Each structure stands twice: as C-alpha cells, then as structure tokens.
Amino acid sequence: MEIDPFIFRLSIFILSIFIGYYVVWSVTPSLHTPLMSVTNAISSVIIVGAIIAGLSGNSSSIFNISSLFGFLAISLAAINIFGGFLVTQRMLAMYKKKKKDK
Amino acid sequence: MISANLSAIFYLISGILFILALRGLSSPETSRQGNLFGILGMTIAITVTFLSIGNFSSGFVVVLIFLLIGGLIGAFIAYKIPMTAMPELVAGFHSLVGLAAVFVAISAFLNPEAFNLGSPGKIKLGSLIEMSIGAAVGAITFSGSIIAFLKLQGIMSGSPITFRGQHALNAIILTLIIVITYMLCSTQSPNLFWILLAISFLIGFLLIIPIGGADMPVVISMLNSYSGWAAAGIGFTLENTALIITGALVGSSGAILSYIMCKGMNRSFFNVIMGGFGATDQSNLSQSKEQRPVKSGNADDAAFLMKNASSVIIVPGYGMAVAQAQHALREMVDTLKKNDIKVSYAIHPVAGRMPGHMNVLLAEANVPYDEVFELEEINNDFANADVAFVIGANDVTNPVAKTDPQSPIYGMPVLDVEKCKSVLFVKRSLSPGYAGIDNDLFYKENTLMLFSDAKKMTEDITKNL
Questions:
Q1: What's the sign of the alpha-carbon dihedral A75, A80, A82, A83?
Q2: How high is the ipTM of this complex?
C-alpha cells in the first residue's frame, strides 16, 4: 500500500515544529521583538499562494473574482515582507556592543 | 517553466534559510546575517513561484504591480515607524498575514483548478479541510490583531470588555466553527464557506476584547502564533513545503513567546485568555490600604544620591516608552559613567507591551546591549548596588509578589529592587500599576519617590549631576 503524500507533509510540519521549538528557545530575550517582526515577515511567504491565485485567470480575462483576491493578498503579503524585513534590519542595526576604548 | 520537483527543492531551501534566519537571532552579532538569510529565502520562494507557473503574460505584470504597491507601503512604514510603536506595528502586520491567508483560501475555494485541488463543488476532501482551517485561523488572526492594534494604539480603551455569558458565547461559536467546517466538507456549499469566515472573524474579535492592556505581550505573541498556524494550513492546501515549514516555525515561536510572557506574570495561559485581569481587582484595593507615609524628593536629591554611588541599576518600564525618556536616560547614564559609576540595566520579561520591547528602545537610544541584563542575570546584583533607578516600571518591582499570598500578583517573578541601598522611583503619582495594586516599594524606608514626568526628571537630574 502506498503512503498518502499528506503524511509526508505532516511529517515535515511536525519536525519543523520541533526545529522551531529548539531554535526559538535559543533566541536571546533581548532580541524577542526582532524575532516577532522577522517571523511576521517570513510567514508572509504565503505570498506564494497569492501569486498562484493572482495568475489563475486565463489569458482573455486576467481579472476574475478569484484572481482579484489573489492580487489583494499579494499586496498585503508584500507590505509584510518588505515592512517586516526592513524594520527588523533597522532594529538589529541599533544593537551595538560597548566600545572598549571609552 | 521548471518542474514541480525542482521547485519543491527550492521551496525546501527557502524553508531552511528561514530556519537560519531565526537561528541568527541567538546573538546580536549573528542576527543581521540571519535577517539576510530570511530575505534570501523569501526571494527564492517568490522567484521559484513565478518560474514554476511560467506565465509571463499580462497577468505577470499585474502581479508585479501589486507586489510593488505593497512593497512600497511596507518599506515606507518600516522607515517611518517610531520604535515605541513596535507593538502596534507587529499587531498590524499580524492582521495582514491573517487577511492574506483568508484571501488565498477564498481564491482557492472559488477557483480550485488553478491550485490543482479539483473543481468547484468537487474539491478534494483533504484540501478542503486544510483550506477551511487555514481560512478560519486566518480570519481569527485578522480580527483579533485588529482589536489588539486598536487597544495598543489607544483608539480603543485598554481596559477589558466583559459581559455576562461571554465565555458561554465564545464556546458556542467555537463549537459552531467545528460543526460548520464539518458540514462544509460534506456539502461543499459556498454559503457555508462564507458563514465559516464570518463567524471566525467574529470569534477573533470576541476573544481579544476581554483581555486588558497589561496582557498585551501575551496576546501579541499568541496572535503571532496563530498567524503561523494559518500559514501552515494554507501550506497544506497548496502542498507547499516552504509554507508548511515557515508556518510551523512561526507557530511554535509565538507559542513559546506566549509561554515566556505568561511565566513572567506567573499566570496560566488559560487565565490570560479568559481575560478580565486588571478590572476585577480594583474593588478590593481601595478599602484595604490607608494612607502611608512616603518620602519624596527632587532632582537635586536624586543627583546627590547617584553622584555618591559606585554602582547604579536602571529599571526601565513601559512608562519610559510613553514619556519618550530613553534618550534623556542615556544622557544621564553617560554623565554617571564619566564619574566612574558603574551602570547596568535590568529588564523584566514583561516590561513594555511586547516581548523584548525595552531592549529595542534602549538599543535605539544607543545603549550597548552588553549593559542590559535579564531578570535572572541581574537579580542578585541589587543587593550590592547603591542605587536602583526605577523609571516607568511598577508592578515588576513590587515586593508584594514575594510576601503577600493574597495579592493577585503573588508568585510573579519580580526585580529585587528593594535590596538596593537606596531606590529612586520616578513616577507621576502614587497611582497603582496595571495590575491595579499598590506597590509596597513606595513606602520603604530607603525609597525616594521622584514625582514628575520621566523625561523631565531625567533631564533635571543630568543638569544637577
């Protein structure tokens, strides 16, 4: 009997939860805010689904109701991706070590 | 156009890059590189999606336009947002992830052929279940985050909104969501899909309104977690590894942060979710406490105490952010350091409105991160320090949490500020903190209250040093 591909995806999912568990516990508490903004940015990889949805129309009509939702989702996710990564970058750039010569 | 297998490999690579992005955050030195990994992972995922569809016609241009619009808005916000507003920003971003998940689910429901999920009315059962879960969790994330955003922004009052039968109503709606999901899967009726979305929006709203302002760190981490699970649900629908991995990472990350925040307040997760904290406790505090003597001083006294100290510990809290006093504080500390006084900062896990909020604000004010310590690292040092300077924090310094089993905050880990030789407590009045309880520290022999705006007081002290 063949294994349903769903089981493989479920395995990836559960193993990733474990990876997330150990990786996030090792994040230093002082970087918890950047952690939240960067997880925000990466969860917007949902844009992948939005792009597929946006391109679902045929060549005669790009805009059907389904692709419109896709286009809107692309914009929402893009706000998050750019906003999330850039604000994380901005925050991380501020974390500086003590200057020894002072 | 690239093959499905090849694109699956690329999605896996971008998932791994996201793991490395989080791994980088284990220390500030590696964190910037980690963020670049994240950006690279995202670029790979988007590029591969375009290549695997292979449709570079007019639709492609429209996609790019929408991507650009969103990107510009996002970049603009990222550069403009003040660091004090990070909690609102993150809540707002969560709502967008939630809504995007809902939109993708709607699109997949209306046009399943585009996603290889069957045809309308005959969507594969597994996909339909995954889609419904993704859509429902996405909708809850969206409306919940909107409420969190409004509360944090101050548009909506931070006090809990409770009414009779609230928990019963929530329980009914949650049951209804499960029932409707079941019916949707057996009938494939579009109407049920819309109803499912509507009640999910409603429950997200209802779940967050009873939770008070002080519990926002938990709420915001919890919504972070939800946005991850929503993404994972959609990932299963689309059979996309990058989304599944990312959803799991974000989901567990948010869950861990919620746990840390709950532990910082010594409250169970369930207790926070049920809400109402901060509203119920106010009744019993007014009658029990009589007026007690308080020592108050001015900037001159404070400057004198600090000048004669050899070590000072700063305890910042949300009030510092509200007063925008972090830069003034940093100037004061610079002056202290010139006088060879050792200064460190003590941060409580729930200081501020989101995890790690204080650390970002101090970093913005150019405070080196190796002078900033977490509760466990620094708590023993208070006994050896000369002065503790409490600015904008309150409940997290309350010794009652260690002494009075009757107190609502009993058992909460607190900073042992009272062990310092002297305590300077900057506060506008004697009013209780968010937990609605009096702070015993105000009345201690070695406490000097500095009644003023945090920023003004800090500047005055600097002048007097």
A1: positive
A2: 0.93
